[in-house]
Design a protein that fits this description.
The structure is a homodimer.
Chain A: H1 6-34, H2 41-59, H3 62-73, H4 79-97, H5 100-123, H6 126-147, H7 153-161, H8 167-190, H9 200-203, H10 209-222, E1 230-234, E2 240-244, E3 247-252, H11 259-277, H12 294-308, H13 312-325, H14 334-341, H15 358-373, H16 382-394, H17 419-439, H18 443-448, H19 453-462, H20 472-480, H21 488-499
Parallel strand pairs in A: 1-3
Antiparallel strand pairs in A: 2-3
Helix pairs in contact in A: 1-2, 1-3, 2-5, 3-4, 5-6, 6-7, 8-15, 8-21, 10-11, 10-13, 11-12, 12-17, 13-14, 15-16, 15-17, 17-21
Chain lengths: ~500, ~500
C-alpha cells in the first residue's frame, strides 16, 4: 500500500520488520501443529519466545511509537489509514502494559504446557496437566492486572481478543441465549424429533481416510478455493493460519469414523480462510490485513460450516460426492445425509457439537474462565465444575477428562478470553444470513447448483475486503445497522431450522 | 550451554535472538521448497529480506560487537568457547563489509530469481532466466569487492562457504583430479567394464512412488534415524535443513523412474542430517552448533551415499527390501543391483552423476563461476561454454538447457562459490573412509549385517560432536593429520572400487 500521506508511508515501512516477525511466528505455529518433529519443542520454544520479544521491542521502539503518535495527529486520513493507526495504537498500548518477563514466561509456558496437555489428554490425566494450567492461569491473571480493567479482571483478557468486549456484554448475551437454547433442546428431545435420531449407519463405520481427504478437496474445489494461495494439511485440532493474504492454510482432521466431522472441519476452516483470501490486496503487509475481530472471523467459519454447509441445498449438492467416496454411504438418501449432518445430540465434545448445543459448551467455558480469572474457582476444581455444569446444561456427564476439561488446546496455549468469541461468531453468522437472504434472491438455488460466487462476493463486499480497517462493533453498525452481538437472529435461525418457519 | 566465563555467557544470551531469526528463516526456506502455496512468493520475499536485515542489525549491534571483541580477549577459554568467538567474529567481519542495500537486493533477487529459474527450467528457456542471473552475478561481484580478496575476486565468495578456500587451492585440486578422473573414465569406457553397462530393466520402468517412499523410510530406519528429531519430505531438488540440533529435515525426490536416484538422495541427505543430529547437545542454540564447513558437511552426505550406500555389503543389505517394494526388481540379483547403483555413464545431470564423473560436473561449474566473477565470461555465454566443456570433459553435449546450465538451483539462490565444496566433500569422504577402515576392523561385516552403530559412533567422535568448534582445516589436521583437501585418497578409492585392489 502507498499512502498520499508521507507519515503513513513511513509507518508502513517501519512496520515491515514487525510484520515479518509475525509472518515467521505464524509459520512456526503452523509447523508446530503439522510437521515439526516432536523433540524440536525446546528449541522451537526458545525461537518463539525470542521472536515475540523482538516483535515487542520493535513495536515499542520509541521512534516507532512516536511515528504512530504522529500518524494519529494527521488530518484527512482515509478509513484504511485511520485503521492502520488505530490497530497499531491498540497493539502498542496493550504491549506497553505487559512487562517483558510476563511475555517471555507466557511464551515458554505455552510451548511446555501445550506439550504436556497433549500427553495428558491422551492419558486423560488432568492431574498431570494441572500444575501447567495453574501456572498459565497465574500468568494470565498477572497480565489482566497489568492491562487493567474497570469492573472485572476478565474484561482485560476479553478485550485482547474482541475490542471492547466485557463480562457485562457476555452475561447479557448468555442470559438470553442459554435459557432459549435449553428450551429448544428440551423441546427437540421431548418431541422425539427426527433430528435427534442418530444415523449410526453413517456415523459408526470406519471410512477410508484417503477417500475422505479426496472428498474434502473436491468440496474445497466446489467452493472455489485457489490452491495457489491456500493449502490444507492435517492436525489434531483443526485451525486456520494466514501467513499473509496470499498464503492461507487450514488443517482438517481424520479420526476414521463419523466423516461429517472431517467435512465440517474443512468447511469451517475454509470459511476462516476466505476472510483473509478476500481481503483487499492493497492492505497486504499492513496492520489491517487481517480480520476485524475473532468474533467476525468465527462468524465466517460458522456461516460456511453451519448455515451453508449443513443446509439442505448444500447437502444435496455434495451428496453425490459423498456417495462416491464413502462406501457405506453409497445408498444413503439426501434426507438421511441431511439428518446425519444435523443430528442434535448432547455430547461431551465441543468441536463435535451440533448447532443447537454448541453454545452451551461455550457457556461453560465462559463461566470457568470468568471464575478462574476472578478467583472464584481454583484450577484443581475445574474438572468437577465442568462435569457438573455439563450435566446441568446438556444432561450428560463426562466420565473422563479427555472428554471433559482436557479436550481443548486453548488454555494450554494461553488463550483465556477466546472461547466467548465462538458464540459471538455464531450470533453474527445468523445476523449475516438474515441480511444476505434479503439481498440475494436466488441464495438457495445458487447453493443447490454449486454457484457460490454471489455469496462469496456478498461477503467480500460487506466484510472481507475491509480487513480490520474497522473495529468489529463499527463494522456491525456500518454494514448491518446492528448494535453489538444481538442473539435474537441466532435463536430465530435455530427455531426456524428445527421447527420449520 | 553454560560457560564458566561470564562474558561468554553474556555473548550466548545476546546471541539467542540472532539464533532465533536464523531458526525462522531456516523454516521459511524449508517451507518455500516443500509446502508454501506458490502465490505467497511476494510476501515471503518481504519477510525473508526483512528478517535477514534484522539478523544483520542484531549481529552488528555495537554492544554485541563489543561483547564479541571482549570475548576474544578472554584468557583460559576452552575450545568450544574459542570456537564461539571465532565463528561470531568471522560472521560479523563478513557482514560489516556488505552494505545493507546489497543484502536486501540479494535477498529479493533470490526469491524472484528462484521463481523464474523454476519456470525457465521447466520450459528449458535460458533466455527467460538470463536477466535474473545477470542481476545476481552483478550482486555477487559487488559483494566480492566489498568483502575484499588478495588474488582473485572469487576467493572472497569461496571463503564465505569454506574458510580460507582460494582459487589457488582449487586450481591445484582440480589440476590433479580432473586428468586422473578423465583417465579412469576413458579406461572404464574403453575396456567395456561391466560398470558401464546400463541395467535398463531396473532403471527404465515406472515405479510405484508410494512403495519407494516406504522403501526410503525402511532404509532410514535401518540407518537408525530418530523420527522424533528428523523428518523427510519431497521437493524438486533434495536438500537438508536443520532448524536446530533436534529438528533436522531432509527432502527426497520421486521422478517415477530410476529408483536408485530417490534412494541415493535419501541416503545422501540423511548423511547431512546425521552431522547435525550427532553434534554435542551442549552446543545447541550457540554459534557452533552446525557443521564446521560445507565441504565437511558434504563429506558426510557423500560418505553415506557413495562409500556406504553404493558399497557391495550395503546393496546386499537393502536388496531384499528393494525386491519387496519395487515390483520389476523382484528377480534382480544382488550383483545386478550393485551394478545398477554403480553404473558409470557420462550424463547431463550432476545430481544423477556416478562417483566417477561427478567431479567433472563440478569442475565445469567451478570454471564458470571463476570466469563469471573474474569477468572472463558473460552470463549469456554460459550455455555454450557449459555445453562445450561437457563435451570436452564428459564426451556428451546437452541438447537443451534444462539438461545443461539450468539444472541447478544454486545460482538462482545466490550460491556462487558453493559448488566446489561438493568436490572437496568427495575428497574428504575418501579420507574418512581410509582412516575409518583402519580403526574399524569389522567395517564391511557390520554394514552387511545392518549394524551401523560403530560407523555412526566413529563419525560422531571424530567429526560430528565438535559442531563448528574447529575450522575445517584445523579439524582435518587435528583429527586426520591431513593438510587440506588431499585428492589422492579419492583417486585411490575410485581406482580400487572400479579396477579392484
Amino acid at each position: 500500500m502507498k499512502s498520499e500521506n508521507p507519515v503513513i508511508n513511513q509507518i508502513l515501512d517501519a512496520y515491515k520488520p514487525i510484520w515479518s516477525i509475525n509472518h515467521a511466528t505464524s509459520l512456526m505455529g503452523w509447523d508446530f501443529e503439522t510437521y515439526m518433529p516432536r523433540k524440536g519443542t525446546e528449541e522451537r520454544g526458545v525461537a518463539d519466545s525470542q521472536l515475540r520479544l523482538l516483535y515487542k521491542e520493535l513495536l515499542l521502539d520509541k521512534d516507532f511509537v512516536d511515528l504512530v503518535e504522529l500518524g494519529k495527529k494527521q488530518e484527512g486520513l482515509n478509513d484504511a489509514e485511520k485503521g492502520i493507526v488505530r490497530m497499531l495504537e491498540r497493539n502498542i498500548t496493550k504491549q506497553i502494559k505487559i512487562p517483558k518477563e510476563l511475555t517471555e514466561a507466557e511464551s515458554l509456558e505455552r510451548i511446555r504446557g501445550n506439550m504436556v496437555w497433549r500427553q495428558a489428554r491422551e492419558k486423560s490425566d488432568f492431574k498431570m496437566y494441572e500444575p501447567y494450567l495453574k501456572k498459565m492461569a497465574e500468568i494470565k491473571k498477572q497480565i489482566a492486572e497489568k492491562i487493567g480493567y474497570e469492573k472485572h479482571p476478565y474484561d482485560a483478557l476479553l478485550d485482547t481478543f474482541e475490542e471492547e468486549l466485557t463480562v457485562a456484554d457476555l452475561d447479557k448475551v448468555f442470559g438470553v441465549l442459554t435459557p432459549h437454547i435449553q428450551k429448544i433442546l428440551k423441546k427437540l428431545l421431548d418431541s422425539g424429533s427426527p433430528f435427534c435420531k442418530e444415523i449410526s449407519k453413517l456415523g459408526k463405520p470406519k471410512y477410508d481416510i484417503q477417500k475422505v481427504d479426496e472428498l474434502n478437496r473436491e468440496i474445497l474445489t466446489l467452493l472455489q478455493y485457489d490452491m495457489e494461495r491456500f493449502r490444507m494439511d492435517v492436525s489434531t485440532h483443526p485451525f486456520t493460519q494466514a501467513m499473509d493474504l496470499n498464503d492461507v492454510r487450514i488443517t482438517t482432521r481424520y479420526e476414521g469414523t463419523d466423516f461429517k466431522r472431517s467435512i465440517s472441519s474443512t468447511i469451517h476452516e475454509g470459511g476462516h480462510a476466505l476472510y483473509d483470501l478476500q481481503c483487499d490486496q492493497s492492505l497486504s503487509v499492513t496492520p489491517v490485513e487481517g480480520a476485524s475481530s475473532l468474533a467476525l472471523h468465527e462468524s465466517q467459519s460458522r456461516f460456511w460450516e453451519n448455515i451453508v454447509g449443513r443446509s439442505k441445498p448444500f447437502v444435496q449438492l455434495i451428496a453425490p460426492l459423498i456417495r462416491r467416496k464413502v462406501s457405506f454411504a453409497g445408498q444413503a438418501t439426501d434426507d438421511e445425509l441431511y439428518l446425519y449432518f444435523n443430528t442434535v445430540k448432547p455430547g461431551y465434545i465441543r468441536v463435535d457439537a451440533d448447532e443447537v448445543t454448541y453454545n452451551l459448551h461455550i457457556a461453560i467455558r465462559y463461566e470457568i474462565e470468568k471464575k478462574i480469572i476472578g478467583d472464584e474457582l481454583t484450577v484443581s476444581e475445574i474438572p468437577e465444575f465442568w462435569n457438573d455444569r455439563m450435566e446441568q446444561l446438556l444432561g450428560v456427564r463426562p466420565t473422563d477428562d479427555s472428554q471433559g476439561a482436557l479436550q481443548d488446546t486453548h488454555w494450554s496455549s494461553g488463550l483465556f478470553g477466546y472461547f466467548p468469541t465462538y458464540t459471538l461468531g455464531n450470533l453474527v453468522s445468523a445476523i449475516i444470513a438474515s441480511k444476505m437472504r434479503k439481498d440475494l434472491q436466488d441464495y438457495e438455488e445458487n447453493i443447490r447448483n454449486g454457484d457460490f460466487r454471489p455469496v462469496r462476493e456478498w461477503l467480500r463486499l460487506k466484510i472481507h475486503q475491509h480487513g480490520s480497517v474497522y473495529a468489529p462493533k463499527t463494522l456491525l453498525k456500518n454494514t448491518f445497522n446492528e448494535e453489538g452481538y444481538n442473539p435474537d437472529y441466532f435463536v430465530k435461525y435455530i427455531e426456524n431450522k428445527y421447527f420449520g418457519s
